[in-house]
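Recall that a protein's primary structure is simply its ordered list of amino acids. Everything else, from secondary elements to tertiary packing, is in principle encoded there. The following example makes that idea concrete.
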Amino acid sequence: MFTTHPGLWYRVRSGLKKGSFHNQLSMIEADVDRIRKMVATRPGTEQARSTVSTRIATTRRNKQDGKYFARVTEAARRFYASLNACWPVSCSQGTCAYVHTASLQIVDYTASSGADRLASRDQGQMNVDLKILFLLDEAGKPPEWNWKAVRVELEELERALGQPDNDCKLSEKEAPATWKFMRPKKPRVKFAEPQVLPPAHPSSSERIESLCQSLQKFNGTVSSTSVERAMRPCMGFLEEKGYLHYLYGTSIPACCKSKKKPITLGEAVNGGWRYPLKCLEKHTIAYLLASAVLQFHDTPWLRHNWTLNDVELIIDGSPSLARAQPIISKTFTQMGHLEDSNSGYRHTPSSIVKNPEMFSLALALLELYIGKPVMNTEEYGRTVAANGGVRNELTDYFAIKELLPVVEAREPENVYTAIYNCVEIHTMSKEYSLENDDFRQAFFDGVVLPLQSNYEVVRNIG
């Protein structure tokens, strides 16, 4: 049987009483407490780290989207100026029998991904595509609604002329001397990749002398394969003050094939459409209207005091407007050219209406969701009567304030939030111009995103 020496236990107990042992024990306990605290705080630390990463990614994405929206506004403004300066003049000398009508399509901005927004020719330049519908009908005759769809790309003239070569391969003379003596790599098996041909280079295109003739030559048919669509040549370019607008023929929206006369949004909302508007139609139109203000503000396409009558819908003949294409149409004639050159489209903010485009958006959203013009409501009548029968910005402002509780009780909260932010814009930012990056971001977060959320919900529900 194993027995211990009587003095062994005495020596062990004596060692436990020494100061070095207590110091080591204190260090172990401190380490245990530190590990316990680290385990307890790790979820919060990971959450905070994830929040910081998300905030950085959101900020980077917001800056990217802000540059894109600013580029869209610039492209729309410059393309209008190009049409206004070139189209009436080029056709006035000949015997042009066509109406000069161009329609800017209002599309979902999310349709183009971040990768598509970078130009293929210059990775540092935003690639902006404006979708335009030209009406190629003869003047003085009943319209046949012969639409021609065109995609427009904006490029600076200096960038187009001095385009760098993107081929980074070095020739034998340019290669370092040490490369020539490197052992060649063994051949490896490689699978053939599908052949994707790039689109025709704009440098091979020519200046468009007569836009009507160029549109007449374009048949507007849809190619059968993706390679044929990619190889569709450029129709030419329009030049305007150091910028080139390349025009590419594309397919028309499906609703244009019905050859129906477009109706204005004012007609659709105020009794001109015989079918009642459903939730999907209202939320779709509201979201696209907010997107139009975001992209085409301070341009001749969207005047500062725009109404629902300035936006048209190309219908497909079905009872639903969800598949209709909203457009903003402008006619370019010699008389219109003179009028536009003498009158500006900018508006000086007043003490009540800080941003007229957003105030017009609030009125348009109210008419869309209450189903009749704001002027025909009882709230508006009381407001005008209280102001001595005079209608001005003040009466419109107080009428909207009285109609907001009605919208809040009948519609989703996001609709009320969007309209309220369009009226009380001082609650979002100290700036009032959509040219300002901070205010444009505030408008996107406070108006566009709430309406986009409603649109996506009803679209997914179907």
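The chain has 14 helices and eight strands. The mean pLDDT is 77.
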